[in-house]
Amino acid sequence: MVDNNNHSLENLEISRRRYMQGTAGVGIGGLLGTQGAMADQQMKNTDASFSQKLESGEPLYGISDPLQGIDSAAIVSQHPETDWVWVDGEHGAIWIEEIRRKLATFPDDTAGLVRIPGGDPKEVEQVLDAGARGVIIPKKRDPDEVERFVESAYFPPEGNRGEGGPIPDVVGNDEVFVVVQVETPEIIEQIEDVAAIDGIDSLLVGPNDLSNFMGVSPDSSQFQQAVDRVLRVSQENDIIPGYWVGSEDESEFVEEGWQLLSLGSASGLLIDAISNRIP
Predict the structure, then answer these.
(1) For residue range 168-194, what is the model confidence (pLDDT) as tens digits?
(2) What stretches of 93-182 adopt beta strand conformation (E)?
(3) Percent of the chain, pLDDT > 90?
(4) Which domain covers residue 86, as residue numbers?
(5) CATH number of the domain enclosing 79
């Protein structure tokens, strides 16, 4: 892990302002397929807030960030069409101090979510106390596990989240966004019970892990039936259906009814950009 202990909050705020204002020397056209520098993008960033898009049913486009340091988070969150960024504490070599600094770079219209490794209540509390808009939990296999995770994201009486984090005005019960990733066949078989748990905002399909754990191809009928089941149950329970789209055409998923769409990772997009640029 990168040692950021010497970074003061004052330096962090300077970095935040620098990225918010835009730096002429840093463009993200090659990374995310747009033209122009961050300053120009920031001027055009007049999209509705994450909450407004949630309520209107508009698609929400996100990018995951598993990379060390605040630069990657600042870059992907500044894109005018980025509605949410999820800092990947599961696969990324990062944790709470660096997550906190990453979240501080996000503009107001970009929701910062954090995927935590195991769903331990303390992990949930830590990332929410660090300023996350919401949490994402992967690879659960049992509705009881899911319910314990969900409860840890809410203050009493809705849950058992403790109060007293270091950052004032952390997200409360009315605004916290709780995402359960659907990545195991056990959860698929009990998805109706999972969807009945109070406090889940989105069920997010992770197709790679789900197909691997099911032992089938993502092109198989078994996999498609499982995915269709998640979509149907989400819609029936007023839960936002989500999907890791990656490099596929997101418009097809929007047409099907998926709303929370992850369009890949900062590391994957960087690899693609390099591959496309170097002969």
Answers:
(1) 788 999 999 999 999 999 999 999 999
(2) 111-115, 134-137, 177-182
(3) 55
(4) 53-277
(5) 3.20.20.60
